[in-house]
Design goal:
This protein has seven helices and ten strands. It has about 240 residues and is an alpha/beta fold. Strand 9, helix 7 and strand 10 form a beta-alpha-beta unit. Helix 1 crosses helix 2. The relative contact order is 0.19. The protein binds fructose -6-phosphate.
Length: about 240
């Protein structure tokens, strides 16, 4: 794994966006795998800035990792709304080129199958990932096994507690989500794992330096040939001697 450590999330976001730009300009129909949450916000800000400076995104296809079950797309905490706010509304990405699991589907099983067909038809060139405090990627939570394909997941208590900061109360936090599976993530040609802040330092050290373990889902990224871990000084605290 390549490791890059920046002074601030903003600097890291600019670096990640520059890599994304390299992918976008080198392919006729680039496919970006995207994440939500606090972590990728500096990346989206930098990408929007590149768009404003002339980067064309009209041929780019985006495929998001996950969505809560039971939140309509216009719910302010849905990942549909997050993507609109932070990226889609500010670029020339075409709506029909943007994909997020439908957490309101009447058949969630069919929705998972539809998403896997989409991933099959549009192999991801660059996957952006955050990491949960428990090591999850997408919503592939720590478990005795990791599921390969898109599936419905019951969120772990620590994930719900962490996500509660966006909701009025813990009772409002969705308990389930649809997420891409780990095999789909590992099939991306290139992966950027972003993590910022002191609360991510321990799990980053485990995921990057520890053994590959299903109870630290991000550790499976060690098996991919082209992963760059993009950190700020605080999230890198557990990696003494990492490249600076
Ligand atoms: C969200 C996702 C999650 C988040 C993770 C970190 O699409 O895939 O794995 O990346 O929960 O969330 P933040 O960035 O809010 O700490």
């Amino acid at each position: 794994m390549n490791i890059r450590i920046f002074a601030t999330p903003q600097e890291a976001g600019i670096y990640a966006a520059a890599i994304a730009e390299g992918v976008l300009v080198s392919r006729p129909r680039p496919v970006l795998g995207l994440a939500t949450g606090t972590t990728p916000i500096p990346f989206y800000e930098a990408l929007v800035n590149l768009y404003r400076c002339g980067l064309d995104m009209s041929h780019t296809i985006t495929i998001n990792l996950d969505e809560y079950i039971g939140l309509p797309p216009d719910h302010p905490q849905s990942y549909h709304d997050f993507m609109r706010q932070h990226l889609f509304a500010h670029t020339n990405l075409r709506t029909e080129h943007t994909h997020i699991p439908n957490g309101m589907a009447s058949s969630l099983q069919e929705e998972c199958e539809r998403y896997d067909r989409l991933l099959h038809d549009h192999p991801i060139d660059l996957q952006i990932l955050g990491i949960g405090v428990n090591g999850h990627i997408g919503f592939n939570e720590p478990n005795h096994l990791l599921l390969a394909r898109t599936h419905v997941v019951r969120l772990r208590e620590e994930t719900m507690r962490s996500n509660a900061r966006f909701f009025a109360s813990m009772d409002d936090v969705p308990r389930e989500a649809i997420t891409m599976g780990v095999q789909s993530i590992l099939q991306a040609e290139r992966i950027l794992l972003l993590a910022f802040g002191p609360e991510k330092a321990d799990i980053i050290a485990e995921a990057v330096r520890g053994n590959v373990r299903t109870d630290v889902p991000a550790s499976i990224l060690q098996l991919h040939r082209r992963v760059t871990v993009v950190l700020d000084a605080e999230s890198a605290r557990g990696l003494p001697g990492a490249i600076r």
